[in-house]
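Kindly inspect both lines:
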Amino acid sequence: MSDEKEVIGLMRFKVVIAILLCLDILPHVATTNKAHADDGQSSPAKCDVRQPDNWTWTNKSGETKSQNDLQTIIKGHERWIGSAHKEGTAAELSASQLKGANLRTVNLSEADFSKSNVSFIDFYGANLAQTVFRRGEAGVRTTR
């Protein structure tokens, strides 16, 4: 039970750090965002979810899903957030197995990851405000 509390505490800490990075409260992100603005390139925050070779995603129905499927969900979610929930669709990834996914800098606020295995998902710089992680497994990675 003590180990479980430590893991949950560590997950919460990592989520808070990811939120602070996303909100430009920590200096590192502010510097990174200025660099993107100065070189004329668009920010990677807009659905830049290229996945490493070893990532896997199985949805709650047990179906193996592709990078394009994930990209579609994230684009719909960002549209949903950007339109104040009037257009697009909220990201519903509950009971999924998303191992090793790259979700860096993605706006996942209000997304549903309940009962999901989020082992080794890279949430570095992602917006996780009000994101649901209830009863998911530990292993969230928010480092570079």
